[in-house]
User: Fold these one by one.
Assistant:
Number 1:
Amino acid sequence: MGILGREPRVEDEPEGEIAAGARLIPRITIQAFCEHSQTADLIESAAHDRRMSKVALTTHNGGIEGAIETYRSNPTPNLILVETSLDPDEIPGALERLAEVCDATTRLIVLGHANDVVLYRELIRSGVSEYIVLPASGQQIVTAITELFAGDGAAPIGRTIAFISAKGGAGGSTVAHNTAWAVAQHLRQDVLVLDMDLAFGTTGLNFNQDPPHGIADALQSTQKLDQVVLDRLMSKAANHVNLMTAPVSLDQTYDRGERDFEQLVELSQKTTPVVVLDLPHTWEAWVRYTLSTVDEIVIVAEPDLANLRNAKNLADALKSLRPAETQPWLVLNKVGVPRRPEISPNEFASSIECALLGQIGFDAALFGTAANNGQMIAEVSANNRVNDTYRAIGMQVTGRSVPEAAARPVSLGLPGLFKKRKRA
Ligand SMILES: Nc1ncnc2c1ncn2[C@@H]1O[C@H](COP(=O)(O)OP(=O)(O)OP(=O)(O)O)[C@@H](O)[C@H]1O
Ligand SMILES: [Mg+2]
């Protein structure tokens, strides 16, 4: 793969420079595969448009074949731009091969040299999001991307994943943060962690961040939340990892209305590909309501009786609350505490009738070091097998069911390109 030496653009544009009313494209990752250097230059110029200020864009050589080669062994971004000089009748076949190595959520814009309306219709019908005839202007490209991701009818790009402990201290926050980290590293997509434990949340501590603003400002904001406000209130902990930390001050109480978090979660979902909700271990109206709205729920439990009872109650309540949605997943944490009698993971999972997504061993030294340093497990111990577990959890809850990108089955395709195929 010939990268043209261009780094992702992740820097923030100063507030106020974004024209009022201009629709910002969300924090998506875009990869462009060009055949000609003029096209790469064109895309580079498009990347400087203000609407693209939150986008991470890289430009590569090789057109469709380059993209296929790359995605055989790499995760696909939110959007692929691909240039092709193939004859119109060869393009659909080449794109089919590309679709075979792409995740279902990835969108595709084709830049072609043939001004052919029959080809255009065929590509759109098969799931390509847009076909742009070259030569085109940077504006045309930005407008197409804006329509796709920030247009009136654009579906939210983000997947919301809530983590809740069956019992206080079972490790819901630790699993949430490390899973968020794993997703950011492996999918190279932006993740936003919302610390919803306003009084006692540990997101700031665990990522060693003490930002001046956070989730409380978003909830108290008198103005309508928009992406510019949200960006000001979140902090960046690492590449692709963004946080909304809890105030953790006890000067006030945090009594919340049922739908107080709704606007924040919805906006986060519109602007960030993966949204991780770190919920406190409580059962208040707003917790239940929030759980009823998210895409995925992970119950984190220790393998003892109180956790089992609570996890069973939670699983039953959640299943009846969201009969048509995905079932909650189970992660068992702190498995194998020395001398502690424990319920076997499989028995635990079958008792509460939830799929066991992963089990994480008890390791006081490892987790204690990570917590004390404000680091993720992958930073403390990069080769630890627990990182594979976090990665597998992350891939499953983001809809990539295979942990190894290289082992991705051909059942994944660009949306609609293979309508008969399973959507992840
Ligand atoms: N697998 C593990 N082995 C050892 N210690 C762990 C493990 N997982 C988490 N811990 C530690 O357990 C403590 C509680 O973890 P965490 O804060 O994630 O739990 P929680 O369920 O979110 O708690 P809360 O109920 O306060 O929200 C932390 O000190 C964390 O470092
Ligand atoms: Mg917690």
Number 2:
Amino acid sequence: MTKTFDFSVNGKAVSVSLDNEDTPLLNVLRNELGLMGTRFGCGLEQCGCCMVLIDGQPEKCCAKPISTVAGKSVTTVEGMGTPQRPHPLQQAFIDEQAGQCGYCLAGILISAKALLDKNPMPTRQEIALALDGNICRCGSHNRIMRAVEKAAAQMRAGARA
Ligand code: FES
Ligand code: FES
């Protein structure tokens, strides 16, 4: 039986009708809503490339049934910024050339945003801990860490200005 699920994505109310209430949020974002930024990697909640914010908390969404998201607020990488107005994290990742293939980066940006939203001055260890659920097969970790530190510094400077 078809059911309708109402929630919000990147600040906009959405309503999707699906036959299967266990359909993963990731499939809904990509296939129903056309938001292709969030990636499918393992599909087993192991790699972190499907990370989104749900009510402000970073969560892997490749195995998260859509029924559990009803009434909640989802933020994807598309909701962080635009090419014209990138989030400071997105700009810092570009400046530091933090990715190689880039496949992991949407999930890493979301995890990093969740961290900086709570903790504007994280230590290197806190950044590593926040990104612990995100695998980067290219081994770009050092540049990714540098980019997060740079964005945090820029956001602090922006907040003071
Ligand atoms: S695709 Fe979701 S954790 Fe790997
Ligand atoms: S940049 Fe390729 S997996 Fe991270």
